[in-house]
Specification:
By secondary structure, the chain is mainly alpha-helical. The chain has five helices and no strands.
Length: 91
């Protein structure tokens, strides 16, 4: 699978300097799925589903921190409401 990915990336003209970053992204995605399955097996699924649905908030925050993208008012309100919802679930 890794060999196929490397071969395919080379044929698409992807720069080899991005390959380690792509591997890290793939491994973290795999880790996220693994941790979701572990959470599903060891506790209430409702909490695991709510927490795993927050990935758009994480993506927006990383874009803001790493890429210096501006977050719109709707994105800030959505992130705030999502975090408030987690606080309400945890209470």
């Amino acid at each position: 699978m890794v060999l196929a990915t490397v071969t395919r990336a080379a044929s698409l003209g992807a720069a080899s300097r991005y390959l380690p970053l792509l591997v890290i992204v793939g491994l973290t995605d795999l880790g996220g799925s693994l941790f979701f399955m572990l959470a599903n097996a060891s506790g209430p699924l409702s909490i695991a589903v709510v927490l795993s649905s927050l990935y758009p908030v994480t993506t927006a925050l990383l874009a803001w921190l790493v890429l210096r993208e501006r977050l719109g008012r709707a994105q800030l309100v959505g992130a705030g409401l999502a975090l408030a919802g987690i606080a309400l679930i945890a209470a």
